[in-house]
Amino acid sequence: MATSEGVHWTPQDGIKTGLPCIGAIKPAKSFSQSESAVFDVIVIGAGYAGLTAARDLTTQGRTVLLLEARDRIGGRTWNTTINGFTYEMGGTWIHWHMPHIYREVSLYGLQDDFIVTQTPGGKEDYCTLITGDRRTNISHEEELSPTERSMLEAIILQMAGGPLETIGFLDALRWWALGGHTATGLNDIGLTTRLRSGQSALARRMFDHAKSTGRLSYAFSTAIAGVDQERGNEGVVEVRPRSGGGAGWQARQAICTVPLNVLQAVSFTPALSGLKRAAIGIGQANRGNKVHADVAGPELVSYTAFARPGKGLVCAIADKETPGGDSHVVFFGPAAEVEGGMRLGGSSGVEGVREAVGHVLPEGSEVKRLVSFARC
């Protein structure tokens, strides 16, 4: 199975669009009852929030129609597997300090599926700080100099993705608190452990659980135009698709889990509150990018780097050795409007991504594979 999303590049094959993913749903539509029937609940969005709602409702005896614009489950949290290695395209690192996600992990028997992605003791076991054209290698024993600010800014940009002026201070404090108010704790929850089988394996278990009840209907590759509580019969909500010219579907209740940056494309009747409309107009501050690279040889399995401002990417974090013996490195960068940011899939193309990756890697590194996904 494969999704139409994502980009994969190698020197041999060039750019290919679409990635293997067990979260891709085929066939795209399936109805456990007539499409014209009134469902108990329509759930819009098949990310973790939507999957949780669909699973909980169907297991409690409700009929549910799950609508999703993408061709797969998982939303912005999903993985692809290439040559036996798992690349997390969105949310990656999870921890038992995160009670909601860990509840799902343990429910589906994945509590022993955790792997530690950091590998100390490699040949390049240091952190590189890049300030403009200056590169400084910092050992674990050394204290930082006045360049701390550049490193701190790069870390925050990696966490939040948006301009420093719009990043929520309380959200940064929340990350700090989840890590037990220590730098090592923040590292543990945010950069250390992930699922060996990938986030899509967990999402697939949730989806299959709901499907097994016989009360789940679904339609993927189906973008939504509007949610109307006044058009249909009293006590019924109508949800209209963006294309196809159909009248839409009806339910007694609707749950909308559409990402904030996409909500502008959905109309609501009656209109949402002024405060909600204002938030939708602003959108989400985090518009950051994520790129995977396989770098020739195992030498970089312990590598870390921060660049400020960077050339599109500001952070490189080593994440295990691939089955082929290469170093897998994950890169993060801010949105295009931020100094040192870039737009994936934009005019810069793959050469721009290669330049951004090369800027944060040690000189002479050979990039053998790039995998990326334009998040919304």
UniProtKB/TrEMBL annotation:
It holds the Pfam family Amino_oxidase. One of its GO terms (molecular function) is oxidoreductase activity. It comes from the Eukaryota. Gene3D superfamilies: FAD/NAD(P)-binding domain. Residues 49-115, 175-295 form the Amine oxidase domain. PANTHER family: FLAVIN MONOAMINE OXIDASE, LYSINE-SPECIFIC HISTONE DEMETHYLASE 2. This is Flavin containing amine oxidase. It comes from Lasiodiplodia theobromae.
